[in-house]
Amino acid sequence: MSFFEIQGSTPLSGQVRIHGSKNAVLPMMAATILHRGTTILTNVPRILDVFWMIGILKTLGCQVWFEEDVLTIDASVVTSTIIPQYLAEKMRSSIIFLGPLLGRCNKASLWYPGGCSIGSRPIDLHAEVLRAMGAKIQEDGEHLDVTAETLSGCTFSFRFASVGATENAIMCAVNANGKTVLNNVAREPEIRDLCRMLVKMGAKIDGIGSSKLVIEGNSQLHNSSFRVPPDRIVAATYLSAVTVCGGRIQLCEVPVYDLRAVLAVLQKCGCRFRKRKSGLDVWCYQRPWAVPYTKTQVYPGFPTDVQSLLMTVLSKAEGVSVIEETIFEARFHTALQLQRMGADIQINHSYAQIRGVVSLHGADVTAMDLRGGAALTIAGVSAEGKTIVRAVEHVFRGYESLERDLAAMGANIVLKQ
Ligand code: EPZ
Fold first, then answer.
1. Active site at which residues (predicted)?
2. Is 218 annotated as a binding residue?
């Protein structure tokens, strides 16, 4: 098992470019099988989940080339609709092949998806909307068989704005017969990006960016190319790092508009920033201030994926802060690892109370999930002494090279086997 060895504490200075978005590129890769042709994606991050998705695409019969940041997918021929267990279990995103496989082949089989252990993560919302379009879904508790004689457009209202279920619904509707109206859809930027790519491929989607989408089915799709936008959570990681470590950094290619809720909270902590051409000049020259209450919400609220990172910042803040996690019921386990570094955090159901300490001390900690691993890593950079962060395979899923970027900003961090 790989681990980071970090010698803190280090104020940050330097420049980093934000790579393409994991949560944008994964549904885009699945969407390519809707078209019997070639789709080219650029600015694709070289992260573990992308390579697992390439494995699934090849298993389905697609031809895939990945050179530097250019991913070419030829889905002219799909020879299988079965996603094998060893790939399905690698990440949550295997589930978002349901919609495109139904849209292309009217059937799909896969084991329940893997992904971060941050809650039960059921798939009932995915099943509800696909059934509304005519799918028949058989489950045995670990495996799904989905078929559809025909897929018909429908009007459907999500009882919760699930990101993945929205993505599956959109991709299925693109090839369904007739019009589909989806109400209360997720509005995360990654949904907007997926819709924009599908429109560029020839799909007809109205209401992009709103909570209501109208999709005309049976689109005539064609070859196209699309640039993957920068990863807003990776950007939030480095914004949190400079806030908790202190210093001044320049981030290139930052989706500032998509980060407005995160920037608002970090500004309350004392972080300051100035917009540059397509990036941000960011600095924090003081101990962070506490933030009395932050609640994670669906977009455009404060994102759950930044919750662990904010907890690291607040663990060194002057005062008492409270975070309420409303999206996932088990996303506070990084707090236990931060406590090993001296953080004073009390968890009570969906609330975390963080009493800031002047400094954290190095410790031997273990990443429990992707964003929690990043949170522990920036905690190690800000802590006094040596920190070991184990199980960093979690971090490889969503960051091209967290250690390379932090080292480029002056951190003393190395990856070891
Ligand atoms: C996506 O997961 C992201 N993953 C997650 O990022 C992110 O945390 C999440 O959206 C929320 O923004 C990818 O895009 C690959 P949801 P997803 O469906 O689609 C419940 C990261 O670190 N729910 O919006 O799985 C679910 O249990 C990852 O990059 C149901 O109850 O999120 C959760 O409590 C972590 N039934 C809530 O909804 C369903 O059928 C939000 O889930 C589906 C979801």
1. 116 (proton donor)
2. no
